[in-house]
Structures are given as structure tokens and as C-alpha cells.
Amino acid sequence: MKDEGGKTKEERRRKKDDKKYIPHPSSHVPRYIVFIVGPTATGKTDAAYLLARQLNCEVVSCDSMLVYKEASVIISKPSDKILKEVPHHFVDIISVKDSYSVFEYYKEASEKIRNLFSKGGSVIVCGGSGLYAKALLDGVFEGVGENKELRCQLERKAREYGSQYLYKELEKVDTETAAKISPNDLKRVIRALEVYTISGVPLSRKKKEACGIYNELPVKVFGLRLNRPQMYDRINKRVDRMVEAGAVSEVKELLKLDLSVTAGKIIGVKELSSFLKNESSLDEAMENMKRNTRRFAKRQVTWFGADKRIEWIDVDNMTSEQIKNIIINNVGAGL
User: Do 193 and 254 belong to one domain?
Assistant: First the structure.
């Protein structure tokens, strides 16, 4: 039904909500779960935001630090504008005082993705946490809790009889896992034996029972990468902006809380706390933040570089709009 101005209800709604999204003009573009991953400071957040607006869909974060409510500046949380215009899931969901496992994330985020996809649209998964991304793609089994008494027994056997003894024990109950572990990798051998002894199920079978979305739903995985000098330059400038935006006062407030082990590892907490305790100058704290972020980015490059499913986009000197268009074209062409 049209109003006096000749506009339909849908047209009126779209005009009212035009700040929230821009519908994609090509209805033939296939629906996908689109992953945008890669190292920090490569422009994932802005590209995902523009892509979600154009496809009129929602974003599922796969960043292990964005889950925290009380931190914003030091974790480069998406701006209020972005979060208001495009729904982002798994941002601001727990306190820095609480723990949140990869398995919990996998269960909740994979369910959210399936639910969103079942409603008829694409879903954008964005972030740089390799474990989170891998959990969603390949699944993860529910962890078997540690048994300190059992672990001590196994460690004592290793000391008495040698690591080869435990490895042969593992071969008897889980040949598949044993084939993938070095006999000298005592930590992994003990963990595999611990899983079997506690659960009665070989570790290899538990891993097979894990079910990710990669073989279940249509998935495209894109990785953003920069040349090393440009990536490091962006990281250094980002830290400068963080301090200008109030990172020091934010860390000061965070330190008043009983931080979980994971939250305590947020880059910036340890470095700026040293400044707040007069153990270093602000310049030294900032340089440590830059160095540790660069090291983290190198680890991300290595992690994601090993995944052959990723379609890499070299984003040197590209705008977010250009990155978004490349992804749209690749998805639309069914690449």
C-alpha cells in the first residue's frame, strides 16, 4: 500500500533507516558466511562494517578481547557509530573479571551464526583471534578438566621410565594421536593420556566429533595483509592514538578490578601499569606496547598464513571501500 506521496511502506522504512544500512543492489550475490581475518591494524573492522551495511547483515566478532565490557580504548573496540549502525555480536558480553573459554565462544558463536544464516542473509565474521576463527571453522571438543593427581602420576612415570614409556602407553590407546606427536613432546603425550584416562575416549576421536561450520555452511574466508613496514607503522600510530584517547586512565580503572588471567594479557595493561607504578616513563610504556603489538601481529601472520583456505587480499594503500568491493566481487563471482 502506498501513502499520499506514492511511497510504499518498505520505501518509507528504508528511508527512515537509511543510516543503518545500504541494501546491496545485486540480488544475485550468493549468501555466505564471510570471514574477514588477519593480523591487527589491517583494517578488518572498517571493511566488515562497510560490507555488512551493503549486504544488510550482521557481524559476529571473533576477537577474544572485544568480549570485555570495561575495556575499549586499549582493545580498539569498534566505535559507537559502527556498533549502533551494524549489530555486532560477542562484543561487550562479559566482565574483565570473568573467564571465557574458546569452547564457550565456539558453542555460542556457531549457534548465533547458524541462527542468523537461517533467517536468509549473509553473516560477516570478523577478527584476528586465530583460535576463535579456527574453532568456528573446524570445531572444538569440550575440554576435559585437568586432574592434578593423575598428571603427577604420569610425570613421575616419565621420570622413572622415560618419556618413551608414556609414548608407548599412548600408542596402545590412541595410535592416531600418537602418530602426530613426537615421543619427546612430553606435555602433549601426558595431556592425551589424561584425556583418555579421564573420559575413556581417545583424544583423536574427540577431535573428530568436533563440528565446525566450514563443511556445513557456505563459507568464504578472506585475509587482509599489509607489507611489514606499513603494518608496523599503523601499529605504532594506533598506540599513539590510544594514549591520546585515554588509555592510561582506562588501564588505571581496570587495575582496580580483579582481572581474569586472559583480561590481564590485554596488551597495554601490563605496559601502562608499569608507568602508573612509576616503574617506567610513559614513553617507555608506549614503546613496550608498540613492540608487543608488533610481536603479536607477527604471530597472527604465522597462524593465519598456515591456513590454505584463506583468500588473501594485499591491502597496502587501499581504502576500506576498496577492500569491501574486492570481497563483494569475489563473493559475487562465487570464487
Answer: no
